[in-house]
Design brief:
By secondary structure, this protein is mainly α. 58% of the residues lie in helices and 5% in strands. It has 15 helices and 6 strands. The strands form 3 sheets. Strands 1-2 form a two-stranded antiparallel ribbon. The protein has a two-stranded parallel ribbon with strand order 3-4. Helix 7 runs parallel beside helix 15. The protein is elongated and about 95 Å long. The relative contact order is 0.11. The model has no long low-confidence stretch (mean pLDDT 95). Bound molecules: arginine. Arginine (ARG) binds next to helix 6.
Length: 430
């Protein structure tokens, strides 16, 4: 049975192909669909399209459906296209003709839009709070390890002293940049499209300000066509934020994989957090970070996937848009899981404290030596040459000391500033 049934049912083959994964995916929209419907009917009553009694009955019916959803017992029946149809059928089955009044002045096109906006808002908040947990773990580790030096590399060649304080703190601050995109995506999602109906508005005097208020949106998508255009754009903005965080996290995962390698040996994990080999008895592999790297790399492709899916679509609703759910729904979950796992693993990371005492890292300190000579009055280029010649003839001996005091350097991490920067952004998603 279809909402749009006009005396014939579509071929099963057509139905299966067009519904696709929607019956499964739409379950995540169910609670938002009910919220949207509640706001819509309150508004319909306020403009005289429902009586107070009808409104009360419909609200009670929707409350019951909401309870079924929260208990995890909501299903989309075979032969029902999507969550919007299922909710309306359930309501009509219970209330008869009153149930059929709920759809005045709206279309599934703005219904799915409003569901998605509400869903994306919550998902972006969930990602923000997972990102915040990871951020705090990183900053805590940065402070705890600010005196532990490690080699810094350029071209993957030993370069200058770095520290675990710098390394952890770098990923924390990088997440603050990603939060900027998350805030932008959230602001785009936080606008009410309801009332755009099929995409061109309605001849009913819909009170769109009222539904905006009832659903807690920051603003409306005023222009009804723009509201419809936001399908795809909302997901794309969210995907960009997701990709940004994933790229930071994937980079971190790569560092960990490399530094667990015996040739580096900078970090390790308790045995039970590593994985083994079926043939080599000694193996303790970093599979967690490899899977994380792979998943994060895959997530960086999500904005492209959305861009390609939506490229050059004609204005107005097109069914292609349904497929956005197949892309963005798993992506939000996957990122949240990766963030959670990263926070857990970093909490168990063991850091080697004496890395730079190994002679293979002697040359990390050549610039420190040059700078010492400069501070003693020697012109930089002369000092550079002097140390360079010592390296050349094998007489260079490092003093393993660093004096980096400027903002953001080894001995002045500015963690409080970074924390403040992040907190100001995180606040916008609370
Ligand atoms: N499942 C559909 C989607 O996600 C709902 C909207 C259907 N609208 C329509 N005109 N067929 O896009």
């Amino acid at each position: 049975m279809k909402l749009w049934s006009k005396g014939f049912e579509p071929d099963q083959l057509i139905e299966r192909f067009t519904v696709g994964a929607d019956r499964e995916l739409d379950l995540r929209l169910a609670r938002y669909d009910v919220q949207g419907s509640m706001a819509h009917i309150r508004m319909l009553e306020s403009i005289g399209l429902l009586s107070k009694d009808e409104l009360d009955q419909l609200l009670a019916g929707l409350q019951e459906i909401a309870a079924i959803i929260e208990e995890g017992n909501f299903r989309i029946d075979d032969g029902v296209e999507d969550v919007h149809s299922q909710v309306e059928f359930m309501l009509t089955a219970k209330l008869g003709d009153i149930g059929k009044k709920i759809h005045s002045g709206r279309s599934r096109n703005d219904q799915v839009l409003v569901d998605l906006k509400l869903f994306m808002r919550d998902e972006l908040r969930r990602i923000a709070s997972e990102t915040e947990r990871l951020f705090h773990k990183l900053l805590e580790l940065s402070e705890n390890h600010k005196d532990v030096l490690m080699p810094g590399y350029t071209h993957l060649q030993v370069a200058m002293p770095s520290s675990f304080g710098l390394w952890f703190g770098a990923y924390a601050e990088s997440l603050a940049d990603d939060m900027q995109l998350l805030v932008a995506a959230y602001n785009i999602a936080n606008q009410n499209p309801l009332g755009s109906a099929a995409g061109y508005g309605s001849s009913f005097p819909l009170d769109r300000e009222m539904t905006t208020r009832l659903l807690g949106f920051a603003d409306l998508h005023y222009n009804v066509v723009a509201a419809q255009m936001s399908r795809g754009k909302t997901e794309r903005a969210a995907a960009m934020a997701i990709a940004a965080i994933a790229s930071t996290l994937g980079h971190l995962a790569m560092d960990v994989c490399m530094w667990m390698c015996q040739n580096f040996g900078f970090v390790s994990f308790p045995d039970e957090l590593t994985t083994g080999s079926s043939i080599m008895p000694h193996k303790k592999n970093p599979d967690v970070f490899e899977i994380m790297r792979g998943k994060c790399n895959r997530l960086t492709a999500v904005p492209n996937e959305i861009a390609l899916l939506t490229a050059n679509l004609p204005l107005g609703y097109n069914r292609d848009l349904q497929l956005l759910k197949d892309i963005i729904f798993p992506a939000t979950t996957e990122l949240a899981e990766c963030l959670d796992m990263a926070t857990f693993m970093l909490g168990h990371m063991q850091v080697r404290r004496d890395i730079v005492s190994d002679p293979r890292y002697d040359y990390l300190f050549t610039v420190e030596e040059v700078n010492r000579l400069v501070l003693g009055g020697m012109p930089f280029r002369e000092a550079y040459r002097k140390v360079g010649l010592e390296v050349q003839d094998g007489t260079y001996r490092p003093m393993r000391e660093v004096h980096h005091t400027h903002a953001g350097s080894i001995s002045n991490l500015c963690s409080d500033r970074i924390a403040a920067k992040f907190a100001a952004l995180a606040q916008k998603l609370k």
